[in-house]
Amino acid sequence: MNKIDNNAAVLRTAEIITIGDELLNGQVVDTNSAWIAQHLGALHISVVHITSISDKPKAIQEALRQAEERADVIIMTGGLGPTRDDITKAAVAAYFGTTLIRNETVLAHVEGIFRRTGRKHMPAMNIGQADVLANATVLFNDVGTAPGMAVERNDKYFAFLPGVPFEMKFLMENRVLPMLHGMHKNDVFVYNTYLLTVGIGESHLAQQIADIEDTLPPFITLAYLPRIGMVRLRFTSEGTDMAYLTSVTNSFKQQVVERLKEYIVSVDNVSFEEVLVQAFTTAGITLSTAESCTGGAISAQITAVPGASQMFHGAAVVYSNQAKMDILGVSLDTLTQYGAVSECTVKEMAEGAKRVFGTDYAIATSGIAGPSGGTETKPVGTVCIAVAGKSETKAQTFHFKNDRTINIERTVMAGLTILWDMLK
Amino acid sequence: MNKIDNNAAVLRTAEIITIGDELLNGQVVDTNSAWIAQHLGALHISVVHITSISDKPKAIQEALRQAEERADVIIMTGGLGPTRDDITKAAVAAYFGTTLIRNETVLAHVEGIFRRTGRKHMPAMNIGQADVLANATVLFNDVGTAPGMAVERNDKYFAFLPGVPFEMKFLMENRVLPMLHGMHKNDVFVYNTYLLTVGIGESHLAQQIADIEDTLPPFITLAYLPRIGMVRLRFTSEGTDMAYLTSVTNSFKQQVVERLKEYIVSVDNVSFEEVLVQAFTTAGITLSTAESCTGGAISAQITAVPGASQMFHGAAVVYSNQAKMDILGVSLDTLTQYGAVSECTVKEMAEGAKRVFGTDYAIATSGIAGPSGGTETKPVGTVCIAVAGKSETKAQTFHFKNDRTINIERTVMAGLTILWDMLK
């Protein structure tokens, strides 16, 4: 086992290599890499490259060679299961010019797992799980049968971990991150801080703060992370003096906050729904929804936030006119005169939801999400939204385009944005 | 614009390159790659490598160089937003030894988008979005401002797409996949056919059809595409005689259908919700939901299907006990005696929804989605589901685990599965 050299080079960059055909054919979304990147980021190690490859010796060795050129820390996950570990571990051993040796402690552990699960016979293929790289520090895996391995060579750190998410996380948290933390004391710091904006497009936003962005010092970068109806901004700074970094970065962030005031929803790294749930809970006020074209999507997004039951009373999804009348008390006159997709109807829906659910606010939606159902005066994409507040009800008509899914998403965001504007 | 060469080499392998610091620092999970891989897989193009890199010219060019060595099709996503596209597009242009030219059709489209959203002035930086690689076929983006681009060179196909998932999907479905499909025509034929199963796990399913799978000829492959509560099977076959391919593949598919009868939901490539909407519409019957822990997620998923308004009348999301009583007529006695999370309560909720919305069927859910709210007798993950049908109401209790999002997803699938079983 290599000992950590106190004068070791600073570990600044990392590369993640994930192995598995299930990643390459799209059966499984690679969530491991984002998790690893976040946790390395907390140690100020920046991931510069993420690669998914197949379980072939040549691909594994080529990926390791390229990663070793690019990064100081290389984390490889997957390919260590009982059916496939021979090939992966042998390929890695060849890469390092070393051999595999049987580790008796690991073998006893693997046998123990089979005994505990009540299976008498451990399949022969599992014996191979106790074979480890001769040059590695074994990372004991308390939660599975495949051990991890760590190798240090030429001031580079390699970790080989199973791909099963909870085993990978266990080994990262209990073995790899503590090792990296110990190796890292004299490093540079990286500071990230966020802003969430709604109601302004990415390019308008960039234009409004262009002069501030121009004055950013080279050690601060600003990233725009857009989604439908919102843009998240991320300031990243890097240097040796954490107090200085934080203070300079926050002063630029503050300039942006002042410039964009009306569009700023949060100065933390949270979702819009979380901001709303928090704001309602703190103010002790409550919300309900009356949804036609969004079909419950606003309600579903709000209630996906833990603790939403504190401020959310319920939703009425009223697809039929009958339900609009029966449940929310929309008048037949309004429906006949103005139609289901009208500002008058959504106003009555919002006020009905407020009354029926006994809430302080209510959002109502009605529209033609598509792909069919459009008319000449109300084409697909026509959406009316109302928000009933404490003293007034606001309604607005939108003209989106053709895609049903996107129209629903846009309507959800527009409804939440109107609500947010009324709350302010 | 390059024309497709009728004698072009067969496109067999692909590499996906995703650009973005938000992927490398773990803020965003790369879901695009899995989606692209699945859709290329359906054209029998295997992804051999997935890479995430930062928005730096050197990284972009190096990734393209390596991908071009390894794969026939290279899909690059991200880095095309208005604030950043100069650097990415310029880097790609340099890689191809070409220049950027202003495309007037794209410019008119981008200006049109700004006009339609009611903003008078398009920011100057958006003009750059109309600059495209001089050697590229422009992939018009109906749903956003960043155009995609396709380049063919030395029998390799490159596509450059925005990273925003719905824009990427639009361009893949409407531009890239049809082009790739067309390039395949004079080659070999690829035939894909699907089965959708619910209520059986992947490994049990594989075990049940192992003997059939063993007899598949080498030109037919079977892929298992599992999601929560369902497994999609894809048969892919490749050869020069389409009639023969279709007939042989369908005969194997038929064997699997007969073996798995009770679990088969569809023999087409459709979603479970689409199957249900179709089945209800065809039978002329109607559905409503009464949702507590799912918060409208069942309703939102059903109504995301075009035409759902034919069979779906509405939903009552009743988070509070008061709303359960007021809107659905659940009795105070039941709530007091058995609690909100009980089979008695969900039965009354389902029957209430059936009555209030005047439907033939209704699904009701109530549970402790987490992370808090659990008790000793009803820990987090306890969920009760009822389905009221024409003549009876069935209720069932489930014990899921700790994650709120997954518990909600599992509940949605379990509710739809019980409904499906009652319909059969």
Word description of this protein:
- Chains A, B: Residues 15-182 form the MoaB/Mog domain.
- The structure is a homodimer of 424-residue chains.
- With 424 residues, chain A is an alpha/beta fold.
- Chain A has helices at residues 21-24, 32-42, 57-70, 85-96, 104-116, 165-182, 202-208, 210-214, 242-260, 272-283, 297-303, 321-328, 332-338, 343-357, 404-423, and strands at residues 13-19, 46-53, 73-77, 100-102, 131-133, 137-139, 148-153, 156-161, 189-198, 220-227, 230-239, 264-266, 287-291, 312-318, 361-367, 382-388, 393-399.
- In chain A, strand 13, helix 11 and strand 14 (312-318) form a beta-alpha-beta unit.
- Chains A and B meet through helix 2, strand 2, helix 7, strand 10 and helix 11 of A and helix 1, helix 2, strand 2, helix 6 and strand 10 of B.
- Strand 2 of chain A pairs antiparallel with strand 2 (46-53) of chain B, so a sheet runs across the interface.
Mean pLDDT of chain A: 89
Largest binding interface between chains: A-B, 89 and 91 residues
Alpha carbon gap, first and last residue of chain A: 60 Å
> Which percent bin holds the helix content of chain A?
40-55%
Low-confidence residue ranges of chain A: 1-9
Shape by Cα distribution of chain A? elongated
Mind describing the biggest β-sheet of chain A?
6 strands, mixed
CATH architecture term of the largest domain in chain A: 3-Layer(aba) Sandwich
Overall number of strands of chain A: 17
Strand content of chain A: 15-25%
State the domain count of chain A.
3
Assembly type of the chains comes to homodimer
At the first level of CATH, the class of the largest domain in chain A is: Alpha Beta
By DSSP (H or I, 4+ residues per run), the number of helices of chain A equals 15
Helix vs. strand class of chain A = alpha/beta
Reported by name, the CATH topology of the largest domain in chain A is Molybdenum Cofactor Biosythetic Enzyme, Chain A
Q: Considering the protein shown, what is the CATH homologous superfamily of the largest domain in chain A?
A: MoaB/Mog-like domain
Strand order of the largest sheet of chain A: 2-1-3-8-7-6
Global Rg of chain A: 28 Å
Protein name (chains A, B): CinA-like protein
Domain MoaB/Mog (chains A, B): 15-182
Organism (chains A, B): Sphingobacterium arenae
Pfam families (chains A, B): CinA (PF02464), CinA_KH (PF18146), MoCF_biosynth (PF00994)
